[in-house]
Amino acid sequence: MLDNIRVVLSHTTHPGNIGAAARAMQTMGLRHLYLVNPRHFPDAQATAMAAGADDVLQHAIVRASLDEALQGVAFTVAMTARLRDISIEVKTPREAMPQVLQEAVAHPVALLFGTEMSGLTNDEVGKAHLGVNIPSNPDFSSLNIAAAVQVIAYELSVAAAAFKPESTAIRPAPHERVEGLFAHLEKTLVEIGFFTTQNPARLMRRLRRLFSRTRLEDEEINILRGVLSTVTAYNARLKQRYAEEHPDVQEH
């Protein structure tokens, strides 16, 4: 199960934190480290802070975007230190890690950590299925990223000691397939004039939250994209018919 879990650090600014996170991972049996557009890597400070976790560091995979880092992942957990206006369900590490292990039985899982200064953006959190908040002092809730990785890795090991997998028939679609659906959905909603507010991104985050609860499978995504394609084609026919019936009216 642990071999099916990747730790994803997004836009890390300090190379020492990358090394310390690698060390935290190796002490708890995690091996797969993904780095999204790190400011400095590879770096001697990262190697020094890894303190012997060279295998994790040397095999770290660097990607230019979060979507690339999440390719093949079917369940993403976002680490957040603050409540958000529009968000996914948030649990403590002790509550969430058994669910992470259950997901990892069948498919790749990502544990997503944000930058040292500001954490994850709303768009990054929107790509996750579950949020995790490490309980801390409300007056000083900011936790060093490597320390956060250590806490989560430890809670995974605690959960693994008593874990008993449950059988499931659900085979969720991977991240890139779901992202393709969301891109298609947004494009279609724009074409049919659905967005009537000044903040379509906010509405799309709500739609993401809705669909993330359903754990869409590949065949279901195919059905939904077929519906969207039919809507687009019908909308185009309506526009063409209107243009033919009203040749003197300029479309805006």
Describe it.
This protein folds into two domains: about 1-160, Alpha/beta knot (3-Layer(aba) Sandwich); about 175-245, Helicase, Ruva Protein, domain 3 (Orthogonal Bundle), CATH 1.10.8. The protein contains ten helices and seven strands. The chain has helices at about 15-25, 45-50, 55-60, 65-70, 95-105, 120-125, 145-160, 175-190, 200-210, 220-245; strands at about 5-10, 30-35, 60-65, 75-80, 90, 110-115, 130. The protein has a seven-stranded parallel beta sheet. The mean pLDDT is about 90.
Q: How many domains?
A: 2
Order of helices and strands: EHEHHEHEEHEHEHHHH
Give the overall silhouette: elongated
Q: Averaged pLDDT, please?
A: 92
Chain-wise SSE layout:
Blueprint: E1 5-10, H1 15-27, E2 32-36, H2 44-50, H3 54-58, E3 61-63, H4 66-69, E4 75-79, E5 90-91, H5 93-106, E6 109-113, H6 122-126, E7 130-132, H7 145-161, H8 175-191, H9 200-212, H10 218-245
Helix pairs in contact: 1-2, 1-7, 5-7, 8-10
Features:
single chain; 252 residues; alpha/beta; Alpha/beta knot; 2 domains; 12% strand
Question: Care to give the gist of this entry?
Answer:
The chain is an alpha/beta fold and 252 residues long. It has helices at residues 15-27, 44-50, 54-58, 66-69, 93-106, 122-126, 145-161, 175-191, 200-212, 218-245; strands at residues 5-10, 32-36, 61-63, 75-79, 90-91, 109-113, 130-132.
